Amino acid sequence: MRRIVLTALFLVCLTACGGGDETNAATTTLAEEVSLITTTQLEASLETPTTLVEQIVEAIPTTTTVDLSWAGPVYPLTGLPAYEGIPETPAVVVKLGNNNQNSLPQYGLREADIVYDMHIEGGKSRFMAIYHSRLPEIVMPIRSARSSDINLLLNLNHPVFAYWGSNDIVLSELQAAERVGGFDRRSASSQGSQYFDRDSSRSIPANGKANTEDLQGTASNEAGTPLSIFEYGELTQNAVPAAGVQWEMAQRVVDYVWNSSLEQWVRYQDGAPHLDENRAPLTADNLLFLYVRYRISDADPISPQAISTGAGDGWLLRDGTVTGVTWERSRSSNSWTIIDDESGETVTLDVGTTWVTLARPGEGSILSSAEAIELIG
């Protein structure tokens, strides 16, 4: 579990092989050789007296220790103890931009229970942040919806979906899904526009903002408490120690590096720590790196659309380890099933926050310890 501190970073030789956009048949291979690099060696390789590792630990808010004996209710989207009971309120889902430097820093990403990170046009990615256990006062920059979003909303028991706008075809798709009870749609350009505003200190279009509690308060009677979309539990015995993972897109490189002091994965974007509004690096307890197929969206010939149902390969990174997995989701209303490649049994996530990377086959690689040192140095 996440509260057991791992005292080292490791090198794992893993390779991900796969075809282009027309296949989900990426193959994940775990190599036999594993070599150790200790935290002392890692910090000794850094030049500054106060290492970046220490700066990161100091900058990130302290995580509350989990009571492992807790047998009461847990938050459905994190598995963490709900000491005051599970809120009988719907999830709030917000599309947040990550197009360029103008999108930085994002506000409210740290409070998200689950974050999907998926391709958009131009070789970049965009976030879909899901909130339930915590509601930040401000989320920003809120950006437009995409066709990929709809299938990722339909297993959350009718959430409130907030986005800035969309083109006419995406709008028709969203309206059709809303009519059959998929979610409550809130947009700055139409229904619910009064709940959106712009931050005068930032430039358009990277300054759209809203309050998640206000958005949650607009939910219809159909909206319900979200159901769990992942299973949480102990670390599988087939997990192998790992230093981190890299996602290489046409115009962006994203890395996650294990930090044993935080017991979390620290996110890097284009070679630098990805900072939040308080200049603290963004982190995750779990990283699901899933290979999915992308097709050309019906709404825009330059916009890729993620196919998030069916099956594919991937990795689960948790507790400083990686496990080769297969994901399955036969319908968009289903939760995610994550299967251990070696045992064929269901793999469970650690309790806490989860970031889900929806990558094309062949875009991912496991970081060696040397690569992790170079990145954080």
What does this structure look like?
A hairpin with a 4-residue loop joins strand 11 and strand 12. The protein has two domains: 8-66 and 230-376, no CATH class; 92-216, YerB-like (YerB-like fold), CATH 3.50.90. Strands 3, 4, 5, 6, 7, 10, 16, 19, 20, 21 and 22 form an eleven-stranded mixed beta sheet that branches. It is globular and about 50 Å long. It has helices spanning 39-44, 52-59, 150-153, 168-179, 212-216, 369-376; strands at residues 8-17, 27-38, 92-96, 114-119, 125-131, 160-163, 184-187, 196-198, 208-210, 240-241, 244-248, 253-259, 264-269, 272-273, 283-284, 286-291, 293-296, 304-307, 310-318, 321-329, 337-340, 354-359, 364-367. It is built from six helices and 23 strands.
Q: What's the SSE blueprint?
A:
Blueprint: E1 8-17, E2 27-38, H1 39-44, H2 52-59, E3 92-96, E4 114-119, E5 125-131, H3 150-153, E6 160-163, H4 168-179, E7 184-187, E8 196-198, E9 208-210, H5 212-216, E10 240-241, E11 244-248, E12 253-259, E13 264-269, E14 272-273, E15 283-284, E16 286-291, E17 293-296, E18 304-307, E19 310-318, E20 321-329, E21 337-340, E22 354-359, E23 364-367, H6 369-376
Parallel strand pairs: 3-6, 4-22, 6-7, 16-22
Antiparallel strand pairs: 1-2, 3-5, 4-5, 8-9, 10-20, 11-12, 11-23, 12-13, 13-14, 13-15, 16-19, 17-18, 19-20, 20-21
